[in-house]
């Protein structure tokens, strides 16, 4: 019976030693306590942000890009994880940057439709800078041509989303309205005593 207790005691001691060694190995393998604070790279140029992240032992990845006329191309707009977050070395930091070039859109056929419909289509494509130029035509408010930087565009042309698009719009035929009163009518005299 005494050997059973000795064997049970040795198994308990062996389990504790193995558990303790496993914890030491896990701490070493996961670099427990070896952390980095994520630096703030928001509002920095892309190249500078990448240099800072690499110097800290982090990996920067462009996750998304957006275009904004008011921000310099390549500027970091967002980062995930946020600045100050505690992470391990080698962690990926996802960046949203301002696109280096504007978003391009493909124009559908905009000729032979009404001005109102053409404006609606362009605004749906995020083109807000629309200029109208009236040209002689027998149809009023009919789009006859689409131009970008003076060049005539066909359906399928690609332009930047913020482009200035010029629509050539028909001014229509002016209708002459005939006078309803003829100059040949006889004047009628009115007797004031009748009233």
Automatic annotation (TrEMBL):
Domain PASTA residues, every copy: 34-99, 101-171
Superkingdom to which the source organism belongs: Bacteria
Keyword Secreted: no
InterPro entries registered for this protein in UniProt: PASTA_dom (IPR005543)
Classification via PROSITE patterns: PASTA
Membrane spanning residue stretches: 6-26
Protein name: PASTA domain-containing protein
Keywords on record: Membrane, Transmembrane, Transmembrane helix
């Amino acid at each position: 019976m005494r050997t059973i207790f000795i064997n049970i005691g040795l198994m308990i001691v062996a389990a504790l030693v193995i558990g303790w060694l496993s914890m030491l190995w896990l701490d070493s393998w996961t670099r427990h306590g070896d952390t980095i604070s994520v630096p703030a790279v928001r509002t920095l140029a892309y190249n500078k942000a990448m240099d800072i992240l690499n110097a800290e032992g982090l990996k920067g990845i462009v996750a998304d890009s957006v275009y904004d006329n008011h921000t310099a191309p390549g500027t970091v707009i967002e980062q995930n994880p946020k600045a100050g977050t505690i992470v391990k070395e080698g962690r990926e930091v996802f960046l949203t940057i301002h696109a280096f070039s504007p978003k391009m859109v493909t124009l559908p056929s905009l000729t032979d439709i009404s001005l109102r419909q053409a404006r609606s289509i362009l605004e749906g494509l995020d083109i807000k800078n629309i200029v109208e130029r009236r040209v002689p035509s027998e149809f009023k408010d009919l789009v006859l041509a689409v131009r970008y930087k003076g060049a005539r565009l066909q359906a399928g042309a690609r332009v930047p989303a913020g482009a200035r698009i010029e629509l050539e719009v028909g001014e229509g035929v002016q209708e002459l309205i005939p006078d309803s009163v003829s100059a040949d009518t006889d004047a009628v005299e009115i007797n004031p005593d009748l009233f």
